[in-house]
């Protein structure tokens, strides 16, 4: 690599085209790993590496850490799981935090985490291309700094921490472009206050869609929830304990199939037959479905009561929109003032990472299933793509740091 680097710098020195440029391409050799993304996954990985004495460089396209949490989450958001399942490696949440920290508390925790480990990402740096260079045996990572300066990094290890939620998913619905009311993705939704007194169509029945409907109710809006497929709704807590935590405990002693049966029995006792309200359950149990497809069950925080009382109306899939109305698959048509798309997010890895072995070019997710999707070839790693939230990201971060430490020791 030293010979290659000297040759590269020599070409730059004697290339008249480069000499005549006012702002030539900057090329930087990174001794340690390069991490793309300064969300919880990237921060956790950098901290795990630092604990082993390995310095890394974090590139972040936004102007701050955890930009998704900062700018693309609604005000009422709390962590859906107890804080002990959401803490990053080597630093628990403060003891005075509630069981389910608020959005602002979580952001404060992430800032304290970055400060404690002295993590200083390079902000406003958008990676536009990354590829393995067979000749020099390094990854070439090209980024745009502050929308004008192009910087090309060379690194031995490339860690993709841009996550499953890098870009919004906007579904193709006929007539969406001609609907005359506001059309808002949940990434831009903050509070139901702006929809007070409005009739709102919420498309998507995951945790976000359910919570947005509840928030709209709290501001005297009239939400209609589109449920296009089957969905598991579980109580947030069972007998005062987190449903997730209780499930993890039971899985130590019982097979997943039996734990699923227990969850469904309890849910039936609490909610009754949800199918009568248009919420049909999948054939697979909630844990089996999550394990196989990554589809997360809804943890109810009060939305179901609003559905039972009719304050939130469940609607089937939408076939088309017109200027003021929606037509549903059952043939019914109804007017609405606004549409909120609770249709989720997707990975953006294929847009910049030129690699076909580790990541699927269609959905930008690792080809290998959990728990084997964190490591690829030539020093390429993925963190935060497990569909298991912050707990999965922490597991990835720990594995990656251990693997790079072994690679350094073997030199």
From TrEMBL:
What does the record give as cofactor?
FAD
Its annotated pathway reads: Plant hormone metabolism; auxin biosynthesis
Q: What class of enzyme is it?
A: oxidoreductase
Q: Which UniProt keywords apply?
A: Auxin biosynthesis, FAD, Flavoprotein, Monooxygenase, NADP, Oxidoreductase
According to the UniProt entry, what is the EC number of this protein? 1.-.-.-
Q: Does this UniProt record's set of keywords contain Transcription? A: no
Instruction: Give the reactions, separated by semicolons, that this protein catalyses.
Output: indole-3-pyruvate + NADPH + O2 + H(+) = (indol-3-yl)acetate + CO2 + NADP(+) + H2O
Name the Pfam families for this protein: FMO-like (PF00743)
- Per the similarity annotation, which family is this? Belongs to the FMO family.
Q: What is this protein called?
A: Flavin-containing monooxygenase
């Amino acid at each position: 690599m030293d010979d290659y680097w000297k040759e590269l710098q020599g070409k730059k020195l004697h290339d008249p085209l480069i000499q005549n440029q006012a702002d030539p391409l900057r090329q930087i050799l990174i001794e340690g790993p390069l991490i793309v993304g300064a969300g919880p996954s990237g921060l956790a990985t950098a901290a795990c590496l630092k604990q082993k004495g390995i310095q890394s460089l974090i590139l972040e396209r936004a102007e701050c850490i955890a930009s998704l949490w900062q700018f693309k989450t609604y005000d009422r958001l709390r962590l859906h799981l107890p804080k002990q399942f959401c803490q990053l490696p080597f630093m628990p949440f403060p003891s005075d935090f509630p069981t389910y920290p608020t959005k602002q508390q979580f952001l404060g925790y992430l800032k304290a985490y970055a400060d404690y480990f002295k993590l200083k990402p390079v902000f406003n740096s958008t990676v536009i291309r990354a590829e393995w260079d067979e000749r020099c045996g390094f990854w070439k990572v090209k980024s745009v700094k502050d929308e004008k300066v192009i910087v090309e990094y060379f690194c031995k290890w490339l860690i993709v921490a841009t996550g499953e939620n890098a870009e919004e998913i906007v579904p193709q619905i006929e007539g969406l472009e001609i609907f005359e009311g506001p059309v808002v993705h949940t990434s831009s939704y903050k509070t139901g206050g702006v929809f007070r007194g409005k009739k709102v169509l919420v498309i998507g029945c995951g945790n976000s869609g359910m919570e947005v409907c509840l928030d709209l109710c709290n501001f005297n809006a009239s939400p209609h929830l589109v449920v296009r497929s089957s969905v598991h709704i579980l109580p947030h807590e069972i007998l005062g304990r987190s449903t997730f935590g209780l499930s993890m405990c039971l899985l130590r002693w019982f097979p997943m199939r039996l734990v699923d049966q227990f969850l469904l029995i309890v849910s039936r006792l609490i909610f009754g037959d949800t199918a009568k309200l248009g919420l049909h359950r999948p054939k697979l149990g909630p844990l089996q479905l999550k394990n196989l497809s990554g589809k997360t069950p809804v943890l109810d925080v009060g939305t179901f009561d609003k559905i039972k009382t009719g304050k939130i109306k469940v609607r089937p899939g939408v076939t088309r929109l017109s200027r003021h109305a929606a037509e549903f698959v059952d043939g019914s048509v109804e007017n609405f003032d606004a549409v909120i798309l609770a249709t989720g997010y997707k990975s953006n890895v294929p847009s910049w990472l030129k690699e076909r072995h580790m990541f699927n070019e269609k959905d930008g997710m690792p080809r290998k299933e959990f728990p084997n999707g964190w490591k690829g070839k030539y020093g390429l790693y993925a963190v935060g793509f497990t569909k298991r939230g912050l707990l999965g990201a922490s597991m990835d971060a720990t594995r990656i740091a251990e693997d790079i430490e072994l690679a350094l020791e073997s030199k």
